[in-house]
Amino acid sequence: MVEVRVPAKVNLQLAVGGAGADGYHDIATVFQAVAVYDHVFAEPGDGVSVQVEGSAEVPTGSDNLAVRAAKALAEHADVSCDVSLRIRKQIPVAAGMAGGSADAAGALLACDALWGLHTPRDELETLAAGLGADVPFALLGGTALGTGRGDRLTPVLAAGSYQWVFAVSDSALSTPLVYAELDRLREGSVLPEPAVTDRMLTAVRRGDAVELGKCLRNDMQRAAVSLRPQLQLVLEVAEEYGALGAIVSGSGPTVACLARDEEHALDLAVALTASGVCPKVLRANGPVPGARLV
């Protein structure tokens, strides 16, 4: 059996351009991988199958991203796609933390090892990009600048470690729905080319958590809050209890709160739970490496 551990992500900045003719949006973002992990297990099987532990919301058929990843790798390598996959979930589902993308990256790495393929890294990254915009970053991890649809990655020189508290919702938000709401809210506006700020990149390079907190920004936040007004209460509680910054993670509905240190992260987690604005919190540090064999 092969086991791969793969992290969630948070977008430190997420700038979203207008929809193109194909309906997709170009983005510019700074990804950071955080220590909330899914584990993907692979062992020999007859055909491809997947079991999911820790969530009843993840599909187990052909539309499961890990299954699609296994099939893509098998086709690329011209081998039979015989694998039994098992996913142990900790990353919240449809929460703006790239849990499905993490599972796809984990399956690519696990199947590659199980089948003894030794696929070059650049080929795995190409396969990852074909599966979803966030999948290449789940392979890479650390801190990176993402452009295009988020799949063109440039590692970012980063110093220090950051303490995060994630306020997790009890219901999911569909990424296409959030994009549609964003388009509605910005209809008629002239939109600049998406870009991240030099100020953000400088803060990350210096490991300056205070400055980083001031730079957190997500163009999708407005749309997520429009669809889930409760998120505004979460953001307000985080500010009230001294978060260096708080932001909707990706398309939401998870809210990522940056803490000063581990003690403050614990206090912030307790405050968010006690306030009743979210049913669950997760604490994690970042950045961490991407998908890795265990």
Topology:
Layout: E1 2-19, E2 25-43, E3 48-53, H1 65-77, E4 83-88, H2 99-114, H3 121-131, H4 135-140, E5 143-147, E6 152-155, E7 162-168, H5 175-185, H6 198-206, H7 209-215, E8 217-218, H8 221-227, H9 230-240, E9 245-248, E10 255-259, H10 262-275, E11 280-286, E12 292-293
Parallel strand pairs: 1-8, 3-4
Antiparallel strand pairs: 1-2, 1-12, 2-4, 2-5, 5-6, 7-10, 7-11, 9-10
Low-pLDDT segments: none
Assembly context of the chains: single chain
C-alpha Rg, in Å? 19 Å
What characterizes the major β-sheet?
A: 8 strands, mixed
Tell me how many strands there are: 12
How many domain units? Answer: 2
CATH topology (fold) name of the largest domain: Ribosomal Protein S5, domain 2
Order of helices and strands: EEEHEHHHEEEHHHEHHEEHEE
Could you say which overall geometry the principal axes of the C-alpha atoms support?
globular
Cα distance, first to last residue? 11 Å
CATH architecture of the largest domain: 2-Layer Sandwich
Tally of DSSP helical segments: 10
